[in-house]
Design goal:
- It is built from 10 helices and 10 strands.
- It has an 8-stranded mixed β-sheet with strand order 1-2-4-3-5-6-9-10, sandwiched between helices. It has a two-stranded antiparallel sheet with strand order 7-8.
- It has helices spanning about 60-65, 95-110, 125-130, 155-165, 175-185, 195-200, 225, 230-245, 265-275, 295-305, and strands at about 10-15, 25-35, 45-50, 70-75, 115-120, 145-150, 205-210, 215, 250-255, 280-285.
- The protein is an alpha/beta fold and about 325 residues long.
- Strand 7 (about 205-210) and strand 8 (about 215) form a beta hairpin.
- The protein has a single domain, classed as Alpha/Beta hydrolase fold, catalytic domain (Rossmann fold).
Length: about 325
Amino acid sequence: MNTALEPTLHHVTCPGAAARGSSANHRMAYREWNATGDPACPRVIVCVHGLSRQGRDFDTLAAALAPHARVVCPDVVGRGESDWLADPQGYQIPLYAADMLALLAQLHQRGPIATLDWVGTSMGGLIGMVLAGQQDLPLPVPIRRLVLNDVGPALSWDALKRIGEYLGEPVRFASEQQGADALWAISTSFGPHTPEQWLALSRPMLRPAPEGGFKLHYDPAIAVPYRALTAQSVQEGEALMWQLYDRIGAQVLLLRGKQSDLLTPQTAARMLARGPRPRMVEFEGIGHAPTLVAPDQVAAVAQFLLAPETAGSA
């Protein structure tokens, strides 16, 4: 992790679902990285994490991009430093997308956005597709470049069931290291990491537990709507996601762990042949999902986002 630059923590008030202990609305936390010298830099890159993760997953990538843009890494509601919802049924993509619109409106107010890019890992990529695939949303500017990290319109049902086996389970750890070891046991598909890298990724995933030790950072109730999924409901949702995908006007980079069980080779091939026709980079020895910590993964994203515009590009 980069220790020379630290992000600043902010919050945005989001309408539409009350937080626990509150009568209205909820707050979403986000960290902003900026080494451009311009606190209102008009170039913004939003990085959104996966289902059970939080925004500090992007520390390494954000530090690499911060000399060029305001890099904004939210904790999706129910995770990290964000509020927990009173009604767990709110923990679904439509509310998450609405929260991101509130975030972008606040960022635009603090400093007008001229260029907007999006990096989404797994769930964060689904949110990005929802925003990039609808032309009538009140975005400050359209998403210009979109990185989909090991996710597409169709998700493997077997992989979703695998994730559901541990999501929301009540666990306690005696130490940070024990917590990191337990997280690694369910995350080996992320691929090789040094012990130092994994501990750095794991620390933000843990919170002191009232009874001692550590617990996971997220509201266990995020699992409630997830566990209500069925193979049929997932299939029905895919039809809508393909429609949104086909409407994406942004340039798209598709990242895939070559051993991913969530984004299958068949789905990736369909994505390459239709809609925004992305470029794909695969990482050997990685499943679901690349953590964007390894130098080759950071370089792939940075080269795509920071490449100069070419004639006819978005």
